[in-house]
Amino acid sequence: MSQTLSSSFARHYGLARVARVWNVSRAGVYRFRSETRSDTIARRPGPVGACSDAELAEHIRREITGFGFHGEGYRKIWARLRFAGVRASPRRVRRVMGEHGLLAPHRARRAEAKAHDGTIVTDKVNEMWGTDMTQTITIGEGRAYVFVAVEHANSEVVGIHAARSPIVSRRWSRCAKACIGASEPSRPAWRVA
Hints:
Layout: H1 15-22, H2 26-36, H3 53-67, H4 74-84, H5 90-99, E1 129-138, E2 142-151, E3 157-163, H6 169-180, E4 189-192
Parallel strand pairs: 3-4
Antiparallel strand pairs: 1-2, 2-3
């Protein structure tokens, strides 16, 4: 009705005027038009491209088998296709590769059991120790680095070391070994360098 010519003005009535007279919304008219067209095949809007999806899949298969590599990513395949003269967008290459099962395999997370349950508490004393470093600022001397050795069984400090530089690993490892190897592990050894 909107394309019908007016007898008095010889102009189209227009959709807005017809929808207002019939008391329907223009959106409803457009929706009704789109639902009644069932003879057309649904596809993405825009140009089709240089070749169909089936032809593009064959080009992709040829590129994958031509070089003998397995697990090629869609970007590298897209670049090879461009070099071969087949023009397609990277998104389309990725979509076609996904539809035909040609994408590179992804690494799946392993569901293996962990080596331990996350606790580091031991049953006996003098079995396992841990060391850590932290830093603090002093008013008189500036930054100080504090190293601590801790017994895992009872969380007791068995050694402590303070230094002006964090690069004292040799001296600290000797101090920690001396603290851990002491005959009385319950008595902390204090040392400041």
